Amino acid sequence: MLYEYVNTFNSLEPFRRTATLMNQTPGPPCLLWRTQDTEIGDVENACWIGSCLTRFLEREPDIAFVEDIPKANGELLSRDGKPIQPGSIFRWWYPLSWSFESFGVRVINPNCVWVAVRDKIDSYATLSCAKSFRVPKSFAVGSSAEAIALISRNHNIFINGFVVKPRTGFGGHGVQVGSLDEAPKEFAGKYMLSERIVPELFHGYYWDVRVFVMVGKYVGGLVRLSRSPVTNIFQGGHVRPITDKLAALLEPAALEAVGLLDRAATVILAQPQAIESPLTEVVW
Question: Other C-beta atoms within 10 Å of 116: how many?
Fold first, then answer.
């Protein structure tokens, strides 16, 4: 979504605010790449993100290859083989040992946040106590038969239909949206069944929003539009800035949501031992 933000607003504000955090640490800033990440492309990837961050970093960042990370000593190896004691690490979609967090390294996108947000059932539970918004009523399910049975027992919840999606994942993959007279198609695994909230169509388009909070400040939002109920851009949606009126409604909700998730991550990080969780495992 950072790439969508930059293209829509012609602004690098999220990177500036992230770099400000990284500049506050005494050790060097580090970027995490794979050995196959070699060039800055025109799509959102680790190299592109690094190029945007570097504009605002006060020190030239060290680049470490994820394949070379030691497991438990809080140290990185630069791509030229030099040992680094990082002050901060920007971690994109790559695995990273808990040792960096436990050694006090400032990790952007740390494991404790991944554990708090990657399982949609868990993150919905964290957000369920919010005062400025509500989350859809949701159930953990493992098959379409289980989802169908839940829908039949809870017509008051599913009066507008249902949404089925993988509990972890992104890009709109595996998402089903159906009306009350439809049944979920076959699926199996760790999924979530939710009530369907149907917004008023915007000039004939379905829509949803993505808002950005960086370092405790709301920095804008995007609306995704599609003729299909699944609005993700990977599934054919397109993007425009949200209106000022909608921003005024969403800013308090966005700040509250981030505060709740940050608190959940802090509790996870405070555990005496690192949590062994598949939510920190990455396929890359």
Answer: 23
